[in-house]
Amino acid sequence: MRRLRSTSKIGSCPCCFIIPPHMLHRLATSGDPALAETAGRTLRETQSLVAFRAQLSTGAPSPAAARHKGLRRQVFDCKGSSDLPGNLIRSENGPASRDKAVNEAYDNAGTTWEFYSKIFGRESVDNHGKALVSSVHYGQKYDNAFWDTRQMVYGDGDGVIFQRFTAALDVIAHELTHGVTQFTAQLAYQDQPGALNESMSDVFGSMVKQWALGQTVDQADWLIGAAIMAPGFQGRALRDMANPGTAYDDPRLGKDLQPGNMKDYVQSSFDNGGVHINSGIPNRAFVLAAKAIGGHSWEIAGKIWYHTLTERLTGTADFAKCAAETVSVARDLFPGDASIAAKVAKAWADVGVLEEASPATALANVSAAYVIAPRMMEIAAAAMPAAKKKKASPKKAAAKSSRAASKKKAKSAGGR
Q1: How would you label 110-139 residue by residue, b for 16+ Cβ within 10 Å and e otherwise?
Q2: What 8-state DSSP symbol labels residue 242?
Q3: What is the mean pLDDT of the chain?
Q4: Of 108, 130, 145, which is closest to residue 182 (Cα–Cα)?
Q5: Of 11, 12, 13, 42, nearest to 25 (Cα)?
Q6: Does residue 396 carry a pLDDT above 90?
């Protein structure tokens, strides 16, 4: 298990960003003055946003809330400022703009909406037909994109490492999926629940891209954010779901830190407990399950993960809970094919969350063949503060002493 430490811990928040803080910290200390200035400004603006948005209410809409049917989009232009939402440039059914970023935000939001609607019958991120609002050209060379609990926001990037954040369909689908999570499981943005939050966004972000391209699981590249990386970047993408830890090795950013197995789980004070780092473990589990099942990721594996996210998980769910629920959902959705649940269970075993059970315990576990791996117990125990032994009150202590004396007396009398 690796440990990363930082003097600047960013706490739990309702804002979800595509670029993790550890990457921005590396750029801010890279020695390149221009990159350092841009990354430092992005970090400062990010912290201000987090502080403000933490005051907003989030969660599922009231059952009495108005429902809307159909796709509704709005794209605003911040024109380099941090004032949201900016000036309205394009609305649903409006003409295309001469601004490429506006059209990309509009089109990619539409593709994501269509995917959720056609594959899962979902009406927007909240399932109540919420309008998909996007703001482009946020800040000066802002090195991020984020979902702020209300809308999408995109920076233009520094032009050296990151470029236009609207260019990648998987990034836009990733961020909008944070909206789906907000209105369903509400996974806490910290430690393993936060890593699951990030992983769900990567999983569905990749699926939307595969669906748009008509790719099978074997044709997919399983990369996240390849289209937002500028020519100066040394690597393939932000993350590689199939091979965590191999997406980049850049002198300014360092090496990709994602683990692909629980034995390499990172205990970190960065990034809300390493939510963008440890998400590599459930990411790889999904890829392994999808490839073992075969075909298109959204047809079987995607349905299992969607039902798990929207119906089974709650805010404190960890990797073991997600593994158990995906196996259970696989059985429920596909009762006629036991091999599907077995393939899902094996995927989680291959990343160290589950392990093969002994015959004696095989009937009492989540998949009839697998149990929670001991490594999961170790990490859970390490995360829990040591319990303090409470001193008994004088009254309770006296009562306890009296009971003990009575027992001793009765035992003595019985032995005569």
Answers
A1: eebbebbeebbebbbbbbbbbebbbbbbbb
A2: S
A3: 86
A4: 130
A5: 42
A6: no
Contact residues for 354 (Cβ-Cβ < 8 A; gap 6+) = 320, 323, 345, 348, 366, 367, 370, 371, 372, 373
Q: What positions carry a catalytic annotation?
A: 175, 276
For residue 90, give the H/E element and its range. Answer: strand 87-91
Alpha-carbon span 258 to 261, nearest angstrom: 9
pLDDT in tens, 350-359: 999 998 765 5
Peptide bond into 85 cis (omega under 30): yes
- Single out the residue of 358, 377, 380 nearest to residue 369, CA to CA: 358
Closest CA to 347 of 285, 291, 290, 292: 285
Report the percentage of the chain scoring pLDDT > 90: 68
| Contacts of 107 by beta carbon, 8 Å cutoff, 6+ apart | none
Q: 247-257 pLDDT, tens per residue? A: 999 999 999 99
112-122 residue pLDDT tens: 999 999 999 99
By the 8 A CB rule, do 304 and 316 touch? Answer: no
* Residues 6+ positions from 44 with CB-CB distance below 8 Å: none
Helix then strand then coil, in percent of the chain rounded to 5, is: 45, 10, 45
The length of the chain in residues reads 416
In the three-class reduction of DSSP (H, G, I as helix; E, B as strand; rest coil), residue 358 is classed as coil
Q: Is residue 243 over pLDDT 50? A: yes
5: which residues sit within 8 A by CB, 6+ positions away? 268, 269, 270
Q: Considering the entire predicted model, what is its pTM? A: 0.83
SS3 labels along 48-69: HHHHHHCCCCCCCCCCCCCCCC
d(CA 180, CA 305): 13
CA pair distance 28, 34, nearest whole angstrom: 9
Look at residue 240 and give its three-state secondary structure: strand
Kindly state the tokens that stand for 356.
């093969």
Contact predicate 16/178, CB 8 Å: yes
